[in-house]
Amino acid sequence: MADIDGLNAPKEFYTDIPQKSESFYLKGSNSLDWGMKNRLSRIFNPVSGKTVMLAVDHGYFLGPTAGLERIDVNILPLIPYADTLMITRGALRTMVPPDTQKAIVLRVTGGASILTELSNEDLAVDIEDALRLNVCAMAVQVYVGSEHEHQTILSMTRMVDMGLRYGMPTLAVTAVGKEMVRDAKYFRLATRICAELGAQYVKTYYISEGFETVTASCPVPIVIAGGKKLSEIDALTMAYRAIQEGAAGVDMGRNIFQSVAPVAMLKAVRAIVHDNETPEKAFELYKTLKNEKD
Ligand code: R5P
């Protein structure tokens, strides 16, 4: 309790300065509560409004993917250069030091493997555990148009409801079934369904035609997955186009951790996302940093 003896009398009320009531910088997020915005601001840089998420959650259905055989060896050195780490709770608890200051996005769905029907996912983590781990968002896979569309959409809405209760954002990850066509029409449908049903941001793939219609018709921020490993210049070009066409960042995995110079690649991606650098200049940066390492 503060000592109440000898308190100074309040005297400066700045009556000529109206209290500011500023809108939140992130698309579609203005009506969210303080805690939710605070968590989102740890994911999306308040200056650029964008994010570089490093996705290393592949093991939840793929097992030890190339580049993720040893998260403690291969991934921990990359963490300082990402804005956010997207990871499972098992990998987080066993391999990431708890004194990390990095924002964590927790994978909270699961239930299938590459040996079975991938869309057969459900919630696999309780929100209490996400809160216990002090994460900044929960990632939920949504399979629009696949066999288990209904189940995965409702998993997302259940997580959105719980997230709203506790101030925890939900990232809806649009997963494309093998039988689906990856085009603007599909991604407009999938991302809009996720946003309308309450996801605070959505992850999808970049497509070369019509991506700007996907970002324009989705009322919340979109981040792109990297997808399969491309050449460095192709991956940087994809990231550049996505940002120029309205994406709020990337959630990139294989194109970073499978690169021969992952730190250089992560820094080059950052230049594109946060500094609007061109792919050519970012690639030059990548080569310079890679050569310094060699
Ligand atoms: C699926 O395994 C996860 O959602 C990944 O986080 C996502 O696919 C991004 O990783 P990548 O850039 O390797 O596609």
Quickly list its features.
single chain, 294 residues, alpha/beta, 8-stranded parallel β-barrel, two-stranded antiparallel sheet, 12 helices, globular, binds ribose-5-phosphate
Strand line-up across the major sheet? 1-2-3-6-7-8-9-10
What level of helicity do the residues show?
25-40%
Query: Could you tell me the radius of gyration in angstroms?
Result: 20 Å
Q: How would you characterize the largest beta sheet? A: 8 strands, parallel, barrel
Give the termini distance in whole angstroms. Answer: 59 Å
The H-and-E topology, N to C, reads as HEHHEHEEEHEHEHEHEHEHHH
Low-confidence stretches: none
Describe the structure.
- This protein is an alpha/beta fold.
- It contains twelve helices and ten strands.
- The strands form two sheets. Strands 1-2-3-6-7-8-9-10 form an eight-stranded parallel β-barrel, surrounded by six helices. It has a two-stranded antiparallel ribbon with strand order 4-5.
- The mean pLDDT is 95.
- Residues 55, 57-58, 86, 173, 225-227, 251-255 line the site of ribose-5-phosphate.
Blueprint (SSEs and pairs):
Blueprint: H1 34-43, E1 51-55, H2 59-62, H3 71-74, E2 84-87, H4 89-95, E3 103-107, E4 109-110, E5 122-123, H5 127-132, E6 137-142, H6 149-166, E7 170-174, H7 184-196, E8 201-204, H8 211-217, E9 222-225, H9 232-244, E10 249-252, H10 254-257, H11 262-275, H12 279-293
Parallel strand pairs: 1-2, 1-10, 2-3, 3-6, 6-7, 7-8, 8-9, 9-10
Antiparallel strand pairs: 4-5
Helix pairs in contact: 7-8, 9-11, 9-12, 11-12
Bound molecules: ribose-5-phosphate (R5P).
